[in-house]
Design a protein that fits this description.
Elements: H1 3-31, H2 38-59, H3 67-70, H4 72-91
């Protein structure tokens, strides 16, 4: 398995976990059970699950009013996109 496939598989797993965590936390919020800490939800986004966290946030209508999530998740995603674009740029052969 090459490096690209390993990274892609990792991102798929962490995004599914972040998405599921948002859904589980929303269900627990409705029923009053023990909740998933916000630090855990943000941590999943920070380690690569920002797309899954944002999808879960809007699909489940969960944490959409909290500025930490409303603005924080898009900022994390922007940094992740810039990071991966930087990796691609650094690893690509230069044309000059």
């Amino acid at each position: 398995m090459d490096t690209f496939n390993i990274i892609l598989t990792y991102l798929e797993i962490v995004n599914l976990l972040a998405f599921a965590a948002m859904g589980i936390d929303k269900a627990k919020a409705k029923t009053g059970y023990w909740r998933i800490p916000e630090a855990t939800l943000m941590g999943l986004a920070a380690i690569g699950g920002s797309i899954g966290a944002m999808a879960g946030m809007y699909l489940f209508r969960h944490k959409t009013r909290k500025p930490k999530f409303k603005y924080g998740l898009p900022v994390i995603l922007a940094f992740q996109i810039l990071f991966f674009l930087g990796l691609i740029w650094v690893s690509s052969p230069q044309s000059f």
